[in-house]
């Protein structure tokens, strides 16, 4: 058995043990779907990410945490192709990824939400979520003109999937409302809907609870867990709210000053002295 396979088997055993201890059904966490290997990202003289490696396994909820400026957003931006690291390799679904632009990465099945909501404020909830289907649309302007029947059938199917998402996220009442008029928490939910509309294999969530009140956070947690559970979507999220992260993540990677200082289950990370120091602001020599 290779070292990698042995470590994976060990992880499997620890997942199973934790679940058994809590009397819950085993989760379907599977093989490695994404692997970041020795990633280094610099902006001029600033090293935002320094030689970081971690993996994401199928069906898991993987969190990236760390104090301000730790490199979390930079890492998410590397995963979805906004930033290109100077060093390191990214492997997705068994293949090494070359330099790609965000839309190509979206076509590979990676969707994301943003820290500052990025919706079309004047458009309705339904139309915003529909934009998430763009990467899946086969017909273009010419096909709409000359292949009317097929294009219409495709459109009906897209609308059906969007309506399913609207039901799933319990936002039927606001389906026609321009999103700019919605409270913050609901806008975040619509953004999640738009990302889900792309039927991602890997869903990246950039601070999904930021700026939310307690009730909105509880709702968002429930939807993230349901997406993971019911759709089997693999999720990688950045979040400042430690309580939320520890509650919903299967594994957590901790960054500080662009370096990885912890990686493991919430319990392992919670008891890691480097992580405790980083969050208490212990100075670095
Ligand atoms: N586009 C950029 N140009 C120059 N420096 C950048 C850029 N983006 C990030 N940085 C720097 O890289 C480092 C990591 O920033 P990053 O935003 O990734 O951290 P973060 O953990 O997401 O922080 P926060 O929690 O405050 O959002 C910081 O020193 C930041 O100033």
From TrEMBL:
GO terms for cellular component: plasma membrane. The keyword Metal-binding does not apply. Pfam families: ABC_tran (PF00005), BCA_ABC_TP_C (PF12399). It comes from the Bacteria. Keywords: ATP-binding, Nucleotide-binding, Transport. InterPro entries: AAA+_ATPase, ABC_AA/LPS_Transport, ABC_transporter-like_ATP-bd, BCA_ABC_TP_C, P-loop_NTPase. Residues 34-282 form the ABC transporter domain. One of its GO terms (molecular function) is ATP binding. This is Amino acid/amide ABC transporter ATP-binding protein 1, HAAT family.
